[in-house]
Specification:
Helix content: 55-70%
Distance between the termini: 60 Å
Structural class: mainly alpha
Number of helices: 11
Strand order of the largest sheet: 1-2
Number of domains: 2
Radius of gyration: 23 Å
Order of helices and strands: HHHHEHHHHEHHH
Shape: elongated
Strand content: under 5%
Length: 191
């Protein structure tokens, strides 16, 4: 069996599981709308199927749905909204190596400011930024949105606000960190 066959079979299996989960969810919601208690068996079945689905895919059901629905969103509308969003530097205290490439700096900034965009854009950026952790490549729409957001960062000059967080290998050891301020003598006695 070819790898592509295995992947397409897995995709079909995931889609079948999603249909069943959504059907159970609709059944429960319909009962709630009618003012009735949802069937306990349906609730238990839903919880079981969601847990199995999350174990099989390695990601939460909500994240999978968001990733799957990216293509159904209005990407052009998102790109237009990104161009007009006013952004401010985030409050991340994470240091960035001076040797880090420009793309790594932009990804760090995207993580830090993603919440400043509307929910749809934030979800797409989050999916883009976590693609590697979920062992998948970002899709073309995620790349378009991330590229537009990175261009907006460059247009506003936000990367300049993060320059003070870029440190060299030797420089990071000379900095004082919060844990050093708590008990400075505790660490000095060891040396």
């Amino acid at each position: 069996m070819k790898v592509t066959d295995i992947l397409s079979e897995t995709q079909r299996s995931n889609e079948k599981a999603l249909k069943k989960i959504n059907a159970l969810n609709d059944e429960i919601e319909l009962a709630k709308e009618k003012g009735k208690k949802p069937d306990r068996a349906a609730v238990a079945e839903l919880a079981k199927r969601v847990k199995e689905f999350e174990r099989a895919t390695g990601m939460s059901f909500v994240d999978y749905e968001a990733m799957r629905n990216v293509s159904s969103r209005d990407i052009n509308g998102m790109l237009d909204r990104i161009k007009t969003t006013d952004l401010r530097p985030g409050d991340s205290q994470t240091l960035i190596a001076k040797e880090a490439p420009r793309g790594a700096l932009l990804n760090h900034i995207l993580r830090d400011i993603a919440g400043q965009f509307d929910d749809d854009i934030t979800n797409v950026l989050s999916s883009y930024l976590t693609a590697d952790r979920n062992n998948r490549k970002p899709n073309k729409d995620e790349i378009k949105v991330a590229t537009a957001a990175a261009q907006r960062i460059l247009d506003l000059g936000l990367q300049n606000a993060y320059q003070s967080k870029r440190v060299g290998k030797l420089e990071k050891h000379s900095r004082t960190y919060d844990y050093d301020k708590e008990n400075p003598s505790e660490y000095q006695d060891e040396y």
